[in-house]
Amino acid sequence: MNTLELHAVHKSFGPVAALTDINLCVPSGSRTAIVGPSGSGKTTLLRMIAGFEFPDRGRITLDGQVMVDGRGAVPAHQRLIGYVPQDGALFPHLSVAANVGFGLPGSLDSKRQRIAELLEMVALEANMATRWPHELSGGQQQRVALARALAQRPRLMLLDEPFSALDTGLRASMRKTVARLLAAAGVTTVLVTHDQAEALSFADQLVVMRQGRLIQAGPPLELYQHPQDAQTALFLGDAVLLPAHLDNGLAHCDLGVLPVRDSAARGQATIMLRPEQLQLAPEAPGSGVASGCVAVVKDCDFAGNTCTLNVALATASGGEQLLPVRNQGPHLPAPGTRVRISTQGLAHVLGATTAT
């Protein structure tokens, strides 16, 4: 069963089309992440779902109920949709308890038990109820905002880049905390983010948008390994893109002859490998490397437990191409070192003629 469904949603601001024929299904209880470059329409789409904006045409349904179509729209406050903006948007003149209880019926005293339950749910101590927003850390403010959104027992939770203002370590821990809380509450969630790694780790379903269009949607691993086009491949992470000639399930390219996933593809095409599919070994007699081609290490991007080596591969045209290679070992080849490159797994084909 799908909690949220969008059918041919279109929105323009003057002559500019912000969204064009968006079709999307969000399964009940799942987590969907929407990614795309600035101006791709992802925040506009989130605001449409929330009821803050209205499409020029198309239909949005929630649990089978029409939220908006050509005949009318359900107001935002009647949709039972939780919304957590980027900055949390806490009321600065209200205590934590008053922020969490805002919108709940009854007096603050009558709401205390529910507020206490919500603070516990988001892992905040009970004595924080009397604090003011300016006395909280960034992560604590986001958890208060989440508790306030959960207070209404929403059918759907919308998160608009809620972790972007946090430092790196806190972002990762908050992302895991929020994902665990929403899963435990059984709340269907849609996250908008510009952070590809965040989207890949958070979501059950990943949606890639570009220039107001939905380019590709599916499980994160599927999109990472099998992107629809080169732009999507590069947007979701480092990628090695090589021209190749395809025949009988093999790609003939500057890295040698590589197996491909699409065995029916023929002719000229671009193939993709992720950096973790490349392996380096020293070019030395007796190294035991029987396959691969020679390249030269240019530099290293050190990032603690993982490093990305840029190696220069000679191309058939007489030039060279820099390839990113992941390296997790403590011993890194120095710049200028000649190494052999071998590959693991199958290359992904980006556009080719398929035999019939």
TrEMBL record:
GO terms for molecular function: ATP binding. It comes from the Bacteria. Residues 4-236 form the ABC transporter domain. Pfam families: ABC_tran, TOBE_2. Keywords: ATP-binding, Cell membrane, Ion transport, Iron, Iron transport, Membrane, Nucleotide-binding, Transport. Gene3D superfamilies: 2.40.50.450, P-loop containing nucleotide triphosphate hydrolases (3.40.50.300). This is ABC transporter ATP-binding protein.
